[in-house]
Amino acid sequence: MTCARRIVAYVRVAAATLSSLPATAWPHAFDDRYDLPAPLSYFVAGAAAAVGLSFVVAALFVRSAPPATATQGRVVSLGPLLPVLRAACGFASLILFALTIVSGWFGTGDPMMNLAPTMIWIIWWVGLSLVVACTGNIWPALDPWRTLFDMMDAIARRLGRKNGIVLGWAYPRAIGVWPAVILLLALAWFEVVYPQAAVPYRLACTALVWSALTLAGMVCFGREAWQRNADVFAVYFATLGRFAPFTAGSDTRSVVLRAPGRGLITTDAGSAAMVSFVIAMLSTVLFDGMLSGQVWWLIQSKLTRAMPLLVDGNGYIIGTIGLVGVWLVLLTAYLLTCRITALLVRDHPLKTIVYAFAPTLVPIAIAYNIAHNCSNLLVQGQQVIPLLSDPLGLKWDLFGAANFRPDIGLIDARVSWYVAIGAIVAGHVIAIWLAHRVALREFGAPHKAVIASVPLTVLMVIYTAISLSIIAEPMVKFDAQLPQALEAGFTIGPRT
């Protein structure tokens, strides 16, 4: 992520000063790029072939529909421990959230020395996303706004208010999840386009504005209705949690262990807004990766020359166009793919197909998050240790860890590259596997399911090649003449 890379750069410089290491920083936290042992095209072709081959394997060996419910699996009872853990996590999260706000509001303006940027962008947005995807949706237990609302509502009920602090307004069904879609795009804009996204004071102000908005929404419509539709973080983590191997049980004292991805194939997206939300999960991370590369720089320079009115000092207009444009392009590509599928199978309406296959794209969003942010999480994530001892950057040492220095050699460009390849290929293979299971659920006969899965498989192969090429730009070495070749390819008409 862009603001995370800014923080990593600060850390890199500081660590270099303290340890006499080279102080040059680059977007994925390494000084050197990895010199591939073979041309990049070989890696891209191999990855695409592996994804395509996974479809053949799924078509040959997977011939049964998925189970009827997402909670089918092994029930693990934790007894009274689970409610206690939930309460403890909620209280601790609320304290940590307050500390983060105080750090951003009153602490130093240096993002490297302030707890807020690392806690929000690295530990919470990147780290917690991966934890939820790989284990289960623990966000309801950690959600500080949920905890705060429940506390205020409980107090109101004890004071004699039958409905607590909820006004009981009906949430408009026609609006659905669209507020969460808009807010996810807005969050991505703030993260990758807004140049002060890592400034602690700006982060604290934004967090307080969101706190007011989401608490007001819960008061007006009720917590469940608001978080199910308009709370972007609740919707986001719940969507990731559908992939996870653990889910909540039927009571408050148990969890269910299930096959990863099962929650994505038992029910469809349910609405056009939810389809758009899933596509936004993919497009926002993809656009973030594009900003690190030369192709985006060339596109931006061409747009600037062609339409000077789009130029502004901070790049807000072009950045917004790029972010929304990538989302619309991916959404259009998905809808066209589903349209082709509808033409092939004939007896299913387009809407059914669009809703059915959208959740199977979630593993790709998870994979690209790993590929794009792994180095940031492992390097900058260590910085939270000294920052918790000195959250405001005022030379405190609350826990005796203020002098801890991150190990910036924990992961290098070579390891990061192979992690990226593995994540991208694995994400697309899992997506194809799940899509084939969905096709069996929707179309019944194995041969018909294979036919229905072909267009989406082609789209995933193409997306594998594109995403791997994008992630490679800031990570590996290219021919020195690549920028000139790309610029020549983007030039329309004779050069002057």
Describe this protein with a few key phrases.
496 residues, mainly alpha, three-stranded antiparallel β-sheet, 20 helices, 2% strand, disordered C terminus
Compose a concise summary of this entry:
The protein contains 20 helices and three strands. By secondary structure, it is an all-alpha fold. The chain has one domain (2-395, 403-490).
Q: Which helices and strands occur, and which strands form pairs?
A:
Layout: H1 2-19, H2 40-61, E1 74-77, H3 81-106, H4 115-134, H5 139-142, H6 144-158, H7 178-192, H8 200-221, H9 223-229, H10 232-241, E2 246-248, E3 254-257, H11 262-265, H12 272-290, H13 294-306, H14 316-345, H15 350-357, H16 362-380, H17 384-389, H18 413-443, H19 446-472, H20 482-490
Antiparallel strand pairs: 1-3, 2-3
What does this protein look like?
With 496 residues, this protein is mainly alpha-helical. It is built from 20 helices and three strands. A three-stranded antiparallel beta sheet has the order 1-3-2, with no helix packed on it. A hairpin with a 5-residue loop joins strand 2 and strand 3. Helix 7 crosses helix 14 and helix 12 packs across helix 14. It is globular.
Total number of strands:
3
Overall body shape: globular
- Strand-pairing-aware structural class: mainly alpha
- SSE run: HHEHHHHHHHHEEHHHHHHHHHH
Number of helical segments?
20
Percentage of residues assigned to helices = 55-70%
Uncertain parts: 7-31, 478-496
Radius of gyration: 24 Å
